[in-house]
């Protein structure tokens, strides 16, 4: 089968590799119809998170079940399925409570597993013609329709981007009438903003520094905040003052936002030099912006081993200097971590089927698998207006 293979830092190739096949009785093999490219792929591509040459990349796959082991009961050959990025067994102590990102069985000796991520198990990725799905009854979300129909772009985002965005709003406890700021307007940030609005947020601000992402945020109805125009915290406070006419008497301290989301992670840009990374920047901004009693959701990736930490503020072991006292004094709740796919995927699918949600609007580019080397390069350099790209197989 053809697959996108990691070769070396900033080098991928489309190669023939051994076909994915049923290895355990509860596996299926899926013929991929769409697979998405993700910022997490770039962490590997950039040589930051320890990808091993030869890895088949991709953790956001959608397709048709082609083969199934004898112990698979819930899905059948021919079913259309989307494959959540974080693989889980479905029945262990953590999975049983819905904490599937902390599955205890999928990658023995570790907590949690995923397709095509260093340290997350031996699972090959879905930027390939075929992909093996372990614990298939748990890890296939069955879908209606046929490949290439009007929901192909919506459904592929259930594999990771939308689920992670939704999880960020869950971590930040977003509820009706909340004011929400999302740092990062890549696919996850935009879909966190989208989720916040679905959950009833009154105002949603989308912070970034790339034109096409800010344009997409505006197109989707969020208030774009351009970091290149100055301190985003002051910009949002000013926008809120303008919106409410003036601060309501006695409520001036609540002129920030009730919920803040980090959809950037450890590769945040520093304010003093937007060309340089500073992994402390977003949490510092959020600590200033969040209201007393507010909530933060940290969904951007932070890595425990960084092969090339930022010279200012970065550490190879992932440690970070954060404004702990400011968060304490405001009584802020902070939530972290990878999405527990088990909790959300079927609900988000049903929002798509019912017509309430069209997350596929964030996808800007479709490419064939053969074009992977060029697409990785352009996405990595943030050129060509790529917000979210999908390989159409
Ligand atoms: Zn992803
Ligand atoms: Zn489990």
Describe the protein.
There is one protein chain. This protein is of the alpha/beta class and 393 residues long. It has helices at 39-45, 93-96, 136-139, 152-156, 161-171, 187-198, 211-219, 232-243, 281-289, 324-330, 341-353, 372-380, and strands at 2-8, 11-16, 28-36, 61-68, 80-83, 86-87, 113-114, 130-133, 141-143, 179-183, 203-208, 223-226, 257-262, 290-298, 333-336, 365-367, 389-392. α7 (211-219) links the parallel β11 (203-208) and β12. The mean pLDDT is 96. It binds zinc ion (2 copies).
Can you lay out the helices and strands and say which pair or pack?
Elements (H helix, E strand, L loop, with lengths): L1 E7 L2 E6 L11 E9 L2 H7 L15 E8 L11 E4 L2 E2 L5 H4 L16 E2 L15 E4 L2 H4 L1 E3 L8 H5 L4 H11 L7 E5 L3 H12 L4 E6 L2 H9 L3 E4 L5 H12 L13 E6 L18 H9 E9 L25 H7 L2 E4 L4 H13 L11 E3 L4 H9 L8 E4 L1
Parallel strand pairs: 10-11, 10-13, 11-12, 13-14, 14-15, 16-17
Antiparallel strand pairs: 1-2, 3-4, 3-8, 3-17, 4-5, 5-9, 6-7
Helix pairs in contact: 5-6, 5-11, 8-9
């Amino acid at each position: 089968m053809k697959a996108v293979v990691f070769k070396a830092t900033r080098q991928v190739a489309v190669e023939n590799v051994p076909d994915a096949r049923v290895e355990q009785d509860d596996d299926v093999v899926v013929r991929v119809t769409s697979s998405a490219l993700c910022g997490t792929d770039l962490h590997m591509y950039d040589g930051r998170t320890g990808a091993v040459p030869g890895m088949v990349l991709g953790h956001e796959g959608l397709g048709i079940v082609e083969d199934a082991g004898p112990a698979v009961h819930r899905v059948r050959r021919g079913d259309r399925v989307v494959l959540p990025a974080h693989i889980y067994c479905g029945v262990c102590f953590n999975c049983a409570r819905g904490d599937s990102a902390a599955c205890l069985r999928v990658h023995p000796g570790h907590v949690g597993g995923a397709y095509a991520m260093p340290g997350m198990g031996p699972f090959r990725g879905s930027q390939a013609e075929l992909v093996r799905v372990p614990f298939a009854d748990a890890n296939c979300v069955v879908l209606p329709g046929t490949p290439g129909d009007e929901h192909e772009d919506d459904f592929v985002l259930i594999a990771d981007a939308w689920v992670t965005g939704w999880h960020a709003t869950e971590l930040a406890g977003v509820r009706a009438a909340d004011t929400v700021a999302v740092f990062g307007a890549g696919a996850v940030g935009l879909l966190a903003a989208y989720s916040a609005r679905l959950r009833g947020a009154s105002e949603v601000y989308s912070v970034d520094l790339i034109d096409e992402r800010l344009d997409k945020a505006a197109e989707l109805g969020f208030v774009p905040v351009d970091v290149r125009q100055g301190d985003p915290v002051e910009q949002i406070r000013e926008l809120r003052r303008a919106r409410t006419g003036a601060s309501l008497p006695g409520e001036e301290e609540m002129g920030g936002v009730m919920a803040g989301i980090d959809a950037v992670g450890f590769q945040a840009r520093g304010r003093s030099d937007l060309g340089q990374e500073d992994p402390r920047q977003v949490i510092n901004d959020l600590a200033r912006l969040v209201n007393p009693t507010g909530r933060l959701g940290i969904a951007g990736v932070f890595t425990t081993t960084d092969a090339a930490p930022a010279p200012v503020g970065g550490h190879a072991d992932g440690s970070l200097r954060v404004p702990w006292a400011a968060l304490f004094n405001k009584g802020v709740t902070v939530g972290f971590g990878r999405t527990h796919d088990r909790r959300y995927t079927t609900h988000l699918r049903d929002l798509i089927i019912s017509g309430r949600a069209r997350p596929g609007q964030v996808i800007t580019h479709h490419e064939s698998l053969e074009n992977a080397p060029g697409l990785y390069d352009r996405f990595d350099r943030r050129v060509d207006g790529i917000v979210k790209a999908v390989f159409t197989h």
